[in-house]
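Appendix B. One record, verbatim.
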Amino acid sequence: MARADRDQLTQVLVNLVKNAEEAMAKGGGTLYVRVQGTEREARVEVQDSGPGIPPEHRARIFEPYFTTKEGGTGLGLAIAARILQEHGGKLDVGGEPGQGACFTLSLPRA
């Protein structure tokens, strides 16, 4: 268990799932959502089988207004990261380019 604003956490998860769906839109794919916990934190992973995130974009992916999507605002991941930060948590990105992306949100346990 973790203490978090339900609506804000829902916003983060919806954003991550929507991004994953958009990343896989052309050829379909697989989306995994995993929930796990340690003694110190609760984690949720959202992993897709899309094209992944190039290394040169990872340093900026959580910056406001940074986007690679046509018509994107570049605010979704920035807002998601800020929400988690305000809850004492964090949002990380992993995965290998060409093999999908994996976003991990971590929150301190209640």
